[in-house]
Write a structure and sequence with these properties.
- The complex is a heterodimer of chains A (about 160) and B (about 250).
- With about 160 residues, chain A is of the alpha/beta class.
- Chain A contains 4 helices and 7 strands, in the order ααββαβαββββ.
- In chain A, the strands form 2 sheets. In chain A, strands 4-7-6-5 form a 4-stranded mixed β-sheet. In chain A, strands 1-2-3 form a 3-stranded mixed β-sheet.
- In chain A, β5 and β6 form a beta hairpin.
- The relative contact order of chain A is 0.15.
- Chain B is mainly α and about 250 residues long.
- Helix content of chain B is about 65%, strand content about 0%.
- Chain B has 11 helices and no strands.
- The longest helix of chain B has 29 residues.
- Classes of the chains: A alpha/beta (about 160), B mainly alpha (about 250).
- Chains A and B meet through loops of A and α2 and α6 of B.
Chain lengths: ~160, ~250
């Protein structure tokens, strides 16, 4: 296998890894799979980035990437964590955003995460179930650091919002 | 003389770890479920920041100390955190006032650190800034709700603000270590963040209908390892496992 073929196979394997806390999304759709490369010795190196600094899923993701590689017949893969530039919710792919809505999670507003002045401009958040915009924030932090709890005043359903960062 | 870059990273790491641990003490005791999640999530962000900073400190030091050794195997006089973050949780108002004072400082601090000439510190600053903005908004909304609430909540919020005010001056202190690092573009000039902190804290206190205390004599000593008696108790619990079973791992 040429290094290019190996890289393609490694990318395919890594990009299929599901996020442990948001299993509807792959790490590629979340925008946390940064790079896959093959070094001169033929070793695959995968770069991932944490969503939030303290996200406990990062260690699990690194393990899942190694497992996915081994399933694809790639052994000895290295996983590197990169911090810079910092992950932003703007890196969610359109497919990832669509899947969030399908799972009943309101996606972050587009293009807001990278502009710090507009970080909180996404309120109000549209309800992912009925589309209503009369929603209220119940709590800034939900089951994970990346989500807030909301409630829709139109349909009465509580829902999660993937926050802008 | 310890390496100033190690000392600096340890100061920042200790601030984050000790406050993160304090917030984790609320687990199972928060006033409501949503707040339970919020405080635990903020604690997680802080402990994440601490881990990055300890890893950086250990790497720069090059003496083989990893993040766990730095967190679990140093005693109180070796800790370099601000006195503010080690203060006990008190009632919910005290926790929220402490959180507001600290996060209102850390938002501009992390932003400024994002421009550090030290690449690892710059990356951590850029990463932490927006998280801190969420911490500040959370604390501000609660302080406004408590201050502008009932006579009971307002009285307790004012007491919390008054009690902790004496620990806010230490955040802006620049000793020789930080002055030298700031002069070469690695560290943040803390004193320069004063106007933004003053503005945001005064604005939130006004919205909370709380009185801003007078700026009088300020308590300090944390950066030199001179701590309040509370830190020892905190460490006794936090470090128990590693002290009782050295080298224990999951």
């Amino acid at each position: 296998m040429s290094p290019e073929q190996l890289r393609e196979r490694a990318w395919a394997a890594a990009s299929g890894v599901a996020d442990p806390e948001l299993p509807v999304l792959t790490i590629a759709e979340l925008g946390i799979l940064r790079d896959v490369r093959v070094d001169e010795g033929g070793t695959v190196e995968v770069a991932i980035t944490p969503t939030y600094t303290g996200c406990p899923a990062t260690a699990v993701i690194a393990l899942d990437v190694v497992t996915a590689m081994e399933r694809a017949g790639i052994t000895g893969c290295r996983v590197r964590t990169v911090l810079s530039p910092p992950w932003t919710s703007d890196w969610l792919t359109p497919e990832g955003r669509r899947k969030l809505v399908e799972a009943g999670i309101a996606p972050p507003a587009c293009g807001v995460g990278t502009a710090r002045a507009a970080l909180f401009a996404a309120d109000p958040v549209a309800c992912p179930r009925c589309g209503g915009s009369a929603t209220e924030r119940l709590a800034e932090f939900g089951a994970t650091a990346c989500k807030a709890l909301y409630r829709c005043r139109s349909c009465g359903e509580p829902f999660e919002h993937f926050k802008c960062l | 003389m310890p390496n100033p870059l190690v000392e600096y990273a340890l100061r920042l790491a200790d601030d984050a770890l000790i406050l993160g641990h304090r917030l984790s003490e609320w687990s199972g005791r928060a006033p409501m479920l949503e707040e339970e999640l919020a405080l635990a999530n903020i604690a997680l962000d802080l402990i994440g920041e601490a881990r990055l900073l300890y890893q950086h400190a250990g790497a720069v030091e090059g003496a083989g100390r990893d993040e766990d050794m730095l967190a679990y195997l140093r005693d109180a006089p070796e800790f370099r955190n601000l006195l503010l973050v080690e203060q006990p949780n008190g009632d919910f108002a005290v926790t929220i006032a402490r959180q507001l004072f600290f996060s209102a400082f850390m938002v501009p601090f992390w932003r400024a650190l994002g421009g550090s000439r030290e690449p690892s510190l710059a990356a951590i600053g850029a990463k932490a800034e927006k998280e801190a903005a969420y911490h500040r908004r959370h604390a501000a909304e609660w302080l406004i709700r408590l201050g502008d609430g009932t006579a009971e909540s307002s009285g307790r919020a004012q007491e919390a603000v008054d009690e902790l005010w004496i620990y806010t001056g230490e955040m802006f202190e620049m000793d020789l270590v930080e002055q030298q690092l700031a002069a070469c573009g690695a560290a943040v000039d803390r004193a320069a963040l004063r106007p933004e902190w003053d503005r945001s804290v005064s604005d939130i206190l006004a919205q909370a209908t709380l009185r801003r205390p007078e700026d009088g004599w300020m308590q300090s000593g944390g950066r030199g390892g001179r701590h309040s008696e509370h830190l020892g108790h905190l460490l006794a619990e936090m470090q128990f496992l590693q002290r009782a079973y050295p080298g224990a791992s999951w």
